[in-house]
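FORM 7B: Structural annotation worksheet

SECTION A. Query
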Amino acid sequence: MIVHAFHATPLGRLLLVGELAAGGNLLLTGIFMEEHRRGPEVDPASVEDVRAFGDVTRQLDEYFAGSRRSFDLPLAPAGTAFQSRVRDALARIPWGTTVTYGELAVRAGRPGAARAVGAAVGRNPISIVVPCHRVVGADGTLTGYAGGVDRKAFLLALEGAAVIGPAAR
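SECTION B. Predicted structure
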């Protein structure tokens, strides 16, 4: 069963999406910010179930409070095999650090494919938890972010990452 909930954060309201597996265990399939580029509308067949997202909201709140540096949640994002490799590489970027799209391409096993990696990063359906905000331009500037560059800057500042100002909004 597809479920969703909304959660208030310092970034604004987040849309949380998941699938309830057998036994009622939640598999997180999406976290989307308001005005998220390529973000979904709430599926009319989805059921709002705030309680199902208890671990998700607790861990997000801990992250925003500065007491959590990584997430421990069962994830089930949709996407291609390449997008999955990119998400795996994203998940290994340590808290408070950044990498360039070119570096991420190498980590994902596709040296020289920075643009393709950038496209895959832009389609990451699990913002914050899969830290696509930690990827910056080749010169260290903040470049595109599906939730908006200002939110990307906020997340990196929260983590204490050294960044160069936004290049594009």
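SECTION C. Observations
The first strand starts at residue 2 and ends at 9. Residues 2-65 form one domain.

SECTION D. Sign-off
Analyst initials: ____
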